[in-house]
Amino acid sequence: MFETLSDRLNSVFKKFSGQKTLNEENVQEGLREVRLALLEADVNFKVVKDFTDRVRERCLGQEVLKGVNPAQQVIKIVHDELVELLGGDTTSLNLSGAKPHVIMMVGLQGSGKTTSSAKLANFLRKQKLKPYLVPADVYRPAAIDQLHTLAKQLGIPAYASTTQMNPVDIAVAAYAEAREQQCDVILLDTAGRLHVDEQLMNELVNIKEKLNPAEILFVADAMTGQDAVTVAEAFNAKLGLTGAVLTKMDGDARGGAALSIKTVTGTSVKFVGMGEKISDLEVFHPDRIAGRILG
Ligand code: GDP
């Protein structure tokens, strides 16, 4: 992930290493290339503009350190600003309040909700919590079977939903069942559509009102770039997202969604999917990712 951006930024920094100081001219020239690199990585244009404005200000501002070469100065500033763009500090799951805590997984069909629900259940079990999986995607053929199969493989309890049931009824009945079984966290795999639609949103709002989830995680396919960000805005406006899971980061060489989603929607990325296997889920650490981008 981020391979292209990483290559491009490194070639910009190389040019700075031949310079004696940072000045208006070389900063302007370097930032033009940083701007292009970010736009090519499919980062939102407004995000790119604000980012380069901040970097320019800091490069030409007070904080330029004597005795440190221009390339190192620029790398440090770009690193700090990338961390901010990626969301600042690592944001963990909010699992406060009464048990079982509900984590509602929302997003478009094919984004990776079902897979991520199972991955997250597995992740939580490793934290010594008792997860409970709830298939509530009654519209996508085989989504329920898919989650039941994953639950069985993992040995994690799952609600016996069927496609004949209404998703709101599933959510309510599953909550009672999970409480009965003294589970700590419910992972609710909700339905997605190929695009945002009113009926789906109303159904999700209904489930939210009934279950009062601790987390509403937006699951987005990172490879869809800015489309993922636009869809996140729509879900956020209706539901109030508490975080995002960016899937298929293993196939996303550009990184536009990861670099734009926090600034555009205010929603922090909490996890990334790095492959199809259950273990391919990582906590999203902005500082480590920024380090990876800068190589
Ligand atoms: P849903 O419709 O949102 O429930 O999507 P699924 O969970 O069924 O995922 C759709 C496809 O994406 C499946 O083939 C998954 O194996 C695949 N997938 C999900 N997450 C990842 C990921 O992080 N990396 C890769 N490479 N594939 C993923």
From TrEMBL:
As recorded in UniProt, its EC number(s) are 3.6.5.4
- The AAA+ ATPase domain sits at 99-246
What's a GO biological-process term for it? SRP-dependent cotranslational protein targeting to membrane
Query: Keywords assigned by UniProt?
Result: Cytoplasm, GTP-binding, Hydrolase, Nucleotide-binding, Ribonucleoprotein, RNA-binding, Signal recognition particle
Signal recognition particle SRP54 helical bundle domain mapped to chain residues: 1-86
Q: Where is the SRP54-type proteins GTP-binding domain?
A: 100-295
Question: Where can this protein be found?
Answer: Cytoplasm
Q: Which family does the entry's similarity section mention? A: Belongs to the GTP-binding SRP family. SRP54 subfamily.
Name of the featured protein: Signal recognition particle protein
- Tell me the stretch of the parent sequence this chain holds: 1 to 295 of 538
